[in-house]
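It would be a great kindness if you could assist me with a short task in structural biology. I am sending you one protein, given as its amino acid sequence and as whole-number tokens for its backbone shapes. I would ask you to consider whether the tokens describe a fold that such a sequence might reasonably adopt. The full record is reproduced below for your convenience.
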Amino acid sequence: MMEVLPGRCVPIAKRELLWAGSAGLACWLAGVIFIDRKRTGDAISVMSEVAQTLLTQDVRVWVFPEGTRNHNGSMLPFKRGAFHLAVQAQVPIVPIVMSSYQDFYCKKERRFTSGQCQVRVLPPVPTEGLTPDDVPALADRVRHSMLTVFREISTDGRGGGDYLKKPGGGG
């Protein structure tokens, strides 16, 4: 993922990662924006500040819209915070899709073995002129386009394996 990110790109992560030992410290030092998902009011105010930063400091934000990891071979419903942020700042959304890593990640052991993933950058989705009322449809539209690509690149034999084709493989 780091290879496809533009300069001045700052990730947003759940606040719990701040307390994840050396990984949390590395995130903090890297400028990760932490969101307390349990305190919605705080998360909304942080997102408002981020929107202003996007506009005034030419910063990009990297958000995982599912909000948490998913290991069932598909994508979870998207949380709408990132979409509200994009609409508020009137900046485009650039969807980035990574193929499944289920074939070479053991969830039980939390361990990766060797494997291959594909990353595909989709065309930007404009938000100019959209309002908060447009956010649900925007999130659904982006999720649908990302899910279509996720299924394609996770089953073509070049990045993510064929688990989606197996009976009971989800997706």
Remarks:
- The helical segments are 21-29, 40-57, 81-89, 135-155.
- Residues 58 and 102 are 35 Å apart (CA to CA).
- The radius of gyration is 17 Å.
- The chain has two domains: 8-62, 64-159.
